[in-house]
Amino acid sequence: MITVTLPAHLRTLARVEGDVRVEVPGTVTRRAVLDALETAYPMLRGTIRDHGTLKRRAFVRFFGCGEDLSHEPDDAPLPPAIADGREPFMVVGAIAGG
Asked: What whole-number distance in Å separates Cα of residue 36 and Cα of residue 48?
């Protein structure tokens, strides 16, 4: 089971409190985690990734194991600590301003 940390507004939309856990069969990649998350919580479709292209939304970032995973390829394996559930896969809403 993969632990996913969502920002507060997505937790509210998904009607969950705290982290969520999803089952990811096979290799644990960002695409596989997001596919499992959107299957378990269909109301999140289109909020993290674009509906058509499945590309990361501009103000969404991904972190895990102290690393920014936002620019890694979608099908690159995530760090082992995320894959075995020791560390969360974090979805973070970026803040912009000036």
From this structure: 13
Give the chain's domains with CATH numbers.
Answer: 2-93 (3.10.20.30)
Question: DSSP letter string over 26-69?
Answer: SS-BHHHHHHHHHHH-GGGTTTSB-TTT-PBPTTEEEEETTEE-
Cα 50 from Cα 23, distance rounded (Å): 22
Distances, alpha carbon 87 to alpha carbons 24, 37, 41, 92, in Å: 15, 16, 21, 15
Closest CA to 90 of 23, 11, 26: 11
The Cα 53–Cα 46 span in angstroms is 10
The answer to whether 14 touches 43, Cβ cutoff 8 Å, is: yes
Residues 27-69 have pLDDT tens digits of 999 999 999 999 999 999 999 999 889 898 888 999 999 999 9
